[in-house]
Amino acid sequence: MQSSVLVVSTDPQGSTVWWANRVGDALPFDFAQAHDDPASLANLKNLGDKARVIVVANQKGGVGKTTATVNLAAVVQAVLGQREGGYLYVFIDTPGSIEDEALLAASLDVADEVIVPMPPEPLAFDPTARTITKVVQPRGLPYHVVVNAWDPRDGKADLEDTQAYIDAMGWPRTKAVIRRYKLHTRAAAEGQVVTQYPKNRVAMEAREDFFRLALELGYGGRS
Ligand SMILES: Nc1ncnc2c1ncn2[C@@H]1O[C@H](COP(=O)(O)OP(=O)(O)OP(=O)(O)O)[C@@H](O)[C@H]1O
Ligand SMILES: [Mg+2]
């Protein structure tokens, strides 16, 4: 029996790597690192049609790419379970900088689709627009913008402004929003993904956001 999900980090800053080391053996999905060998990404093409390759991208740093990558991977793995026959989903985490655009490009070369996480704050608008219009759209790849780290305690104004901006730009946006929870911020330090959070109400809500997102995007729906 094998994992159904592979996570690949292409971030030379290596936050995913650092993170994966922390989680160690408890990691529920397989993990590989490709930032020092972007040519190796081409091997993902050999996984065949069965494997859906999802690149998580935004050239603005700190928008939640790594958080979205590892937690989406965790919930999809939880839905599919261990099985024979190779990976069904590959999630590629990419660098949050313009300088590393070659690594992002190598990732997009093997992508079936793209997820663009974006926080509900005006400062994120322009850099996100750059990634989408200059890097993602020219490739004609399907993509979705996902609002990440919305704090309901701040009220709905920022969320609605951001959603209105995304819609005005004509970008496909998921209905599912990932809320901000301290739990997520602490998770990396504690070596946990959402499927490993403790069983309490807040953790359940935090986990639910990723299950809802996976469901909306159709991840895990195939057998
Ligand atoms: N939904 C969330 N709730 C709480 N904290 C979050 C959430 N999303 C991200 N964070 C926190 O924000 C910080 C940045 O998130 P993350 O590392 O996932 O972003 P990134 O886009 O991968 O950054 P980089 O561009 O540096 O790779 C981290 O400390 C993370 O724990
Ligand atoms: Mg990251």
Write the layout of secondary structure elements.
Blueprint: E1 5-9, H1 15-23, E2 30-33, E3 52-56, H2 65-80, E4 89-93, H3 101-109, E5 113-118, H4 125-136, E6 143-150, H5 157-169, E7 178-179, H6 182-190, H7 201-217
Parallel strand pairs: 1-2, 1-4, 3-4, 3-5, 5-6, 6-7
Helix pairs in contact: 2-7
The structure holds adenosine-5'-triphosphate and magnesium ion.
The site of magnesium ion has 6 residues, from helix 2.
Write structural notes for this entry.
The chain is α/β, with parallel strands linked by helices. The chain has seven helices and seven strands, in the order E-H-E-E-H-E-H-E-H-E-H-E-H-H. The chain has a seven-stranded parallel sheet with strand order 2-1-4-3-5-6-7, with helices on both faces. The structure holds adenosine-5'-triphosphate (ATP) and magnesium ion. The site of adenosine-5'-triphosphate has 19 residues, from helix 2, strand 6 and helix 6.
